[in-house]
Amino acid sequence: MDPGRVFENDPPSRTLPWSVRPGARAWRCAPAPAEVRSFHFSLPDYATTPLTEIPSLAVELEVGRVFVKDESARLGLPAFKALGASWAIHRTLAERVASGEPGPVTLVTATDGNHGRAVARTARRLGQHAHVFVPQGVHPQAVAAIVAEQAKVTEVPGPYDEAVRLAAEEAAAPDAVLVQDTAWPGYEQIPGWIVEGYSTLCAELDEQLAAEGVTEGPDLVSVPVGVGSLAQAVITHYRSRPSERASALLSVEPESAACVLESLALGEPVSVTTGDTTMAGLNCGTPSSIAWPYLRGGLDAAVAVADADSARAAGDLAALGVSSGPCGAASLAGLRAALTGADAEERRTALGLGPSSVVVLLSTEGDAANPHSTAGH
Fold it and tell me: Which residues, 6 or more positions from 281, have their beta carbon under 8 angstroms from its beta carbon?
């Protein structure tokens, strides 16, 4: 078991659910394909999403600068997921044409909301069909948004992992393809393409930070985590290039669905029984099989947060001009948890943070309760 792992659940004296991974900044992997950014750049609705500096958070967190990468409007949708779905579907359809299967196809997926809508939107624009499986607990607004993309929606009376299982069974039908953002042994190519799609976000971040005078990369990036696909993309980006000042990477999950934190603690990927959480997009019980080696090797630390903490963070970001839902705001909630309370100085040291450090928070979705908000744009 990881000696840095602590996971207690007995308030008020509870200890922060936290795992630290010494040596992660020395871990290395291959980079994402360069052509992904060119593909996204060619899309008619592509635009770089904002990077907003928030000095008041830097003061609060006792670091030099804090930036928020705002994914509340990405390719016409309110979350980063469209980056992965568009690239993966592009690759999938190209391979079908190359193999002599150019006809219409039904793109099948399971979702807690944003990924399914991104698959449905991409399918509609390309003249394909979409069938989306939605687990219990997903907000009716999110389901309605998927239906509005002309997708067939099946609501599942069970958790996310059950929705994934049923979607995989449905995709076994003729002229159907599973486009899932989690992988398992035997199903890894398309999830790998989805991860590649997220690399565009990181490429933008490099350019935006350089324009702000941060040329060596941030000292820390805080990433909300469900099955770990976005974290895999972020780890790939920062662990595939030589750097004298490697960035620390922190994953943040709901306490009720901390599958990555638990897997890191045990040293192997495990499934956990998930509970209810307002962070619906992170309510996942099993790490992606292709993400796990990256999570195990390249994450500096993992933390789990309560719904109340993400709600507070979302409200604070809204007041500061950034529209963020509970999942997106988890990046702020997790960093706050890591840098405050008992043993905070020890955690700050483990993350390599000091008074001049540059921190990036990935806000992965907009505020679904206020879908027409233009905060931060």
Answer: 79, 112, 113, 114, 115, 224, 226, 325, 327, 364, 365
- Record the tokens describing residue 175, joined without a space: 């002229």
DSSP 18-75: EEE-TTGGG---PPPPTHHHHHHHHSTT--PPPEEE-HHHHHHHTSSEEEEEE-SSBT
DSSP string, 192-247: HHHHHHTHHHHHHHHHHHHHTT--S--SEEEEE-SSSHHHHHHHHHHHSS--SSPP
Q: Give CA 323 to chain center in angstroms.
A: 16
10 Å CB burial of residue 79 (0-12, 13-18, 19+) is buried
Question: Per-block average pLDDT, block size 10, for the chain (377 residues)?
Answer: 37 72 94 97 96 98 98 96 98 95 93 94 97 93 95 96 97 96 96 98 98 95 97 98 86 97 96 94 95 98 98 98 97 97 95 97 84 31
Q: What CA–CA distance (Å, rounded) separates 333 from 281?
A: 16
Regarding pTM above 0.70, the answer is yes
Catalytic one of 2, 10, 45, 112: 112
- Rounded to 5°, angle at Cα 234 from 68 and 358: 40
81 flagged as catalytic: yes
Cβ atoms of residues 141 and 368 within 8 Å: yes
Q: Which one of 81, 181, 300, 309 is the catalytic residue? A: 81
Dihedral sign for Cα atoms in the order 221, 224, 225, 230: negative
